[in-house]
Design goal:
Blueprint lengths: L1 E11 H19 L2 H9 L4 H18 L11 E4 L9 E4 L1 H9 L2 E10 L3 E10 L2 H5 L10
Antiparallel strand pairs: 1-5, 2-3, 4-5
Helix pairs in contact: 1-3, 2-3
């Protein structure tokens, strides 16, 4: 595996809860995609934890991609884990997808964690393996 970048971010859960209370759906729609919001709302009273983790993940992905200017909140989507099958994944679009392509990034791996107080995420941008490159390459990120 050829690592192209690593990003780490932390988000206080109370900061997310305050933003949700103060700005409501307008804030949620500006920062998160519909599936991210739906997933968090399904978590009930732990919605702020889930959104704080996704906020941290979006920031970590930006950093792993070299923090290029112009990446919008909706350019990075955190797709929920499927228990017993796979962990959370990243879907890139727009500027983020173009930045990934320019850096030779074939995938961004993420790990999320949260408690009642703090959420954190780490992202690792990886290039296609040499074997994948010689076999036609990895699929381009969404929106590339």
């Amino acid at each position: 595996m050829n690592v192209r970048g690593v990003g780490l971010d932390v988000c206080p859960v109370d900061r997310m809860a305050r933003a949700m209370a103060r700005l409501g759906d307008r804030f949620l729609r500006r920062v998160f995609l519909p599936d991210e919001i739906a997933y968090a709302r399904a978590r009930g009273r732990r919605a702020a934890e889930s959104l704080a983790a996704r906020f941290a993940a979006k920031e970590a992905v930006r950093k792993a991609l070299g923090a290029p200017a112009g990446i919008g909140w909706h350019d990075v989507e955190i797709v929920a884990a499927v228990p017993g099958t796979r962990g959370p994944t990243v879907r890139l679009a727009g500027v983020a997808a173009r930045a990934a392509h320019a850096r030779g990034v074939a995938d961004v791996l993420i790990s999320l964690t949260h408690t009642e107080e703090t959420a954190a995420a780490v992202a690792v941008a990886v290039a296609a393996s040499p074997a994948a490159s010689s076999a036609g390459g990895a699929a381009a990120p969404t929106g590339a």
